[in-house]
Request: fold
Amino acid sequence: MAEGMLLAVAQKIIEDLSSWTFQEVGSLWDVEAELDNIKNTLSTIQAVLQDAAEQQSHNHQVRDWLEKLKVAVYEADDLLSEFLTEALRRGGTSENLAKKVRGFFSSSNPLVFRYDMSRKIKAMRQKLNAIAEDRKKFHLKECHVEPHVSMDREETHSFVPNENVLGREDDKKAIIKLLLDPNVEENVSVVPIVGIGGLGKTTLAQYVYNDDIVKKHFELKMWVCVSDPFEVKAVIEKIIASATSNKPNDLHMDELQKQLRKEIDGKKYLLVLDDVWNQNYNKWDNLKSLLMGGAKGSRIIITTRAKLVAEITSPISIYTLNGLSIDQSWSLFEQIAFRKTTRDQQS
Reply:
């Protein structure tokens, strides 16, 4: 189980470093080669993880190696997240990411930041390289790891019966608190829900969406299942369909943006963008610019597996969803088992 999580985090880092956003930042900050090296090293390590996981039960040296790897991978994830977050923060809210990154050089102490992050990234690259080199001592078998492939997911919707939601009451209250916070300066702000697949991000978003307090607070509520690929025109069409209950037919982009702004401008709205994978800052910026006409207090909830996806939206806060407790997990298991038994008896 722990190795499965390690594999998932390593894969996430590889996908993040392959994204347009990281490639642009890495190039303009002159750490592109270091980031590519980290990505390649993780891919090399990833190939032997399965065999290492099988050997650790009878080989304490492999077990120690896995523990060092786990610490290093989590540190790498934190460091890269820190690097990107600080980079985007220093860039302000310019329209183009390249302009944002180049704008760092006119901010206070840019050379200090550049040197510090470059040093940390280089040290992390060396640490991971050393761990990768150590793997040769154990003659681990390589196993091909399939890269992430976008898959069509069953389209989600906004409704969930309350009795189907277990162990998420505190999470719901925390999200609603962010949605209703009167101290947020922006008229329209973003609240991402981040977590690995299967944790219940969509269910939590549905739970919040259908809360009575939320219903009364927002004049307009919209739900869109985004998934992959992230095409701005298609997302706009879905937003309009959710707002009006009518799907726009064969409209050009200019006609769509006019209709979208007509529906949301001046209204305090809640928009849920479920299952977002987009890591392209420009695509997000193009969409967000059309959503800025909402009244003060408007909110956009995003559910995503990747922290990078959340970070490029310049959110007011990122809500990281954790797993259920053991008792909650058993309650959920019993609920599912009871439903299955009931269906079997009725059939």
User: Anything to note?
Assistant: Confidence is low (pLDDT under 50) at residues 92-107. The beta strands are 188-194, 220-227, 269-276, 298-304, 319-320. The chain has two domains: 2-138, 162-325. The two ends are 36 Å apart (CA to CA).
